[in-house]
């Protein structure tokens, strides 16, 4: 049970890193990015190439998120800039970007899953069972990044601008907030967050071109269950989803576990559509 709990915390921490980026653009700015999972995948793939060339996992932890952040800036500027207010157009455009990124990676990287070695390589003995220290490192990293992300969004000028642009973009614009720059930088940072999660996940999961497809569904679930625009709710919901999925997987096949998790999520949304944490009306996007 302890091992399953730690696995759930580890998996929930990865979901949280992706979901926090989604919470920033979906919960705060109202942009639905279906290519967010591919940013996660690109982080892992770029990390694989960086490690192959330099032999340093820690260097890939810097390079991969930086490159994907730049890609996010380009996507926002040249794909989404003129259609950000149109939800249908945004969905179609980001889905097209998702497919393009998948097949570009398939062409150059190939379809065979690849593995990255554990960068720490230390195994703890928990009740006679070995447990990688790297997974505990991911849990600690997620908590630190969540704390920093919360401070950034709530106590910095840029974070307040992001929240203002989400609540009322027109009023924010006439108040002097650089709306276009806010959307651009926020989308880029969100993409970089997803790539960071991909790099951290690479030594644990198989690196391949479809690895972002499943986890993006869990990330959207975390944002919705946590409460629209609630960072705290998103983080807690991610951990809960990770623990439940790991516990279900330990007693049934993975496919059945995912179906049951989706059913539980649907029931939760039916009975509590506002999510775990209700964001005040004054802070919701108009």
UniProtKB/TrEMBL annotation:
Which example biological process does GO assign this protein?
A: amino acid transport
Q: Which UniProt keywords apply?
A: Amino-acid transport, Cell membrane, Membrane, Transmembrane, Transmembrane helix, Transport
Q: Which GO terms describe its molecular function?
A: transmembrane transporter activity
CDD domains for the chain = TM_PBP1_LivH_like
TM ranges = 6-27, 57-75, 87-109, 133-153, 182-204, 216-243, 255-271
Q: Where in the cell is it found?
A: Cell membrane
Q: Name one GO cellular component term.
A: plasma membrane
Its membrane topology is listed as: Multi-pass membrane protein
Superkingdom: Bacteria
**According to its UniProt record, which protein family does this protein belong to?**
Belongs to the binding-protein-dependent transport system permease family. LivHM subfamily.
**Claim: Membrane is one of the keywords in the record:** yes
Indicate the principal place this protein occupies in or around the cell: membrane
Q: What is this protein called?
A: Inner-membrane translocator
